[in-house]
């Protein structure tokens, strides 16, 4: 979706957009619900740094296409490294085409095949983190002993991986609750920009 898709809309029915691509589109009849991606990503990486990790790879870098999520989360990653005085190593920035399990798995396999030294992964969403966990296990790399892993979005499945996945975000339940509150609430016809609180939900993977 682009601004051009929303601009000609004449229907006054409440519309709520989710996600980073829609941040600039909210108006009198279009609300937006999201999270501060830069700050949330920075907190996720700071969590890894606080646990002694120094070679943290970013899984989810995208240079083309609708890449607002990737760009913002990469900025948070970079800020956390800079704040800790850690070098920004280009070899630790893992590019993907899609935010999918397969893409996360392939990105981590490339990292391993290249012989790149890393002790943590910050995956830009939980799907890629699931793929990363699979590939680490396939290569005999222990989580979190050898490599700690953190995802983003805190989807329900994160609780049921082995080990359970640390993830950052408000979670889909909180997002959907906010969405329906906006639609049903008395302020639904006013300009609305809702940035939700986030937290790093620490589980066994880190």
Describe the structure.
The chain is of the alpha/beta class and 206 residues long. The protein has two domains: 3-35 and 171-198, no CATH class; 37-168, 3-Layer(aba) Sandwich (Rossmann fold). The protein contains six helices and nine strands. The chain has helices at residues 3-6, 37-50, 68-83, 101-113, 126-138, 172-184; strands spanning 15-18, 30-35, 56-61, 93-95, 120-123, 148-152, 166-169, 193-196, 199-201. The strands form two sheets. Strands 4-3-5-6-7-9 form a six-stranded mixed sheet, with helices on both faces. It has a three-stranded parallel sheet with strand order 1-2-8, with helices on one face. Helix 3 links the parallel strand 3 (56-61) and strand 4. Helix 2 packs across helix 3 (68-83) and helix 4 crosses helix 5 (126-138).
Primary descriptors:
2 domains; 35% helix; 206 residues; alpha/beta; six-stranded mixed beta sheet
Summarize the structure.
This protein is 35% helix and 19% strand.
Tertiary shape: elongated
- What is the correct CATH architecture of the largest domain? 3-Layer(aba) Sandwich
Helical amount = 25-40%
How large is the radius of gyration? 18 Å
**CATH superfamily label of the largest domain:** Response regulator
Derived structural class: alpha/beta
End-to-end span in angstroms?
A: 35 Å
Please report the number of helical segments.
6
Structure summary, number of beta strands: 9
CATH class of the largest domain: Alpha Beta
In the sheet with the most strands, the strands line up as: 4-3-5-6-7-9
Q: In this structure, how is the largest beta sheet organized? A: 6 strands, mixed
Mean pLDDT: 89
> What sequence of helices (H) and strands (E) makes up the elements?
HEEHEHEHEHEEHEE
| Uncertain stretches of 5 or more adjacent residues | none
Strand content: 15-25%
Would you give the CATH topology of the largest domain?
Answer: Rossmann fold
């Amino acid at each position: 979706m682009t601004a051009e898709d929303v601009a000609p809309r004449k229907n006054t029915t409440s519309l709520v957009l989710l996600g980073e691509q829609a941040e600039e589109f909210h108006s009198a009849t279009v609300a937006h619900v999201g999270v501060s991606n830069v700050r949330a990503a920075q907190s996720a990486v700071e969590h890894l740094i606080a646990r002694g990790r120094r070679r943290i790879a970013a899984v989810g870098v995208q240079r083309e296409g609708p890449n607002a999520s990737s760009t913002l989360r990469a900025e948070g990653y970079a800020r956390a490294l800079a704040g800790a005085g850690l070098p920004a190593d280009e070899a630790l920035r893992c590019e993907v085409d899609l935010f999918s399990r397969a893409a996360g798995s392939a990105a981590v396999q490339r990292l391993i095949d290249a012989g790149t030294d890393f002790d943590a992964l910050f995956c830009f969403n939980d799907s890629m983190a699931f793929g990363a966990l699979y590939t680490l296990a396939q290569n005999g790399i222990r989580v979190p002993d050898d490599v700690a892993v953190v995802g983003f979005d805190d989807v329900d499945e994160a609780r049921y991986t082995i080990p359970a996945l640390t993830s950052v975000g408000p979670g889909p339940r909180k997002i959907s609750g906010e969405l329906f509150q906006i639609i049903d609430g008395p302020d639904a016809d006013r300009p609305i920009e809702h940035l939700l609180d986030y937290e790093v939900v620490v589980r066994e993977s880190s």
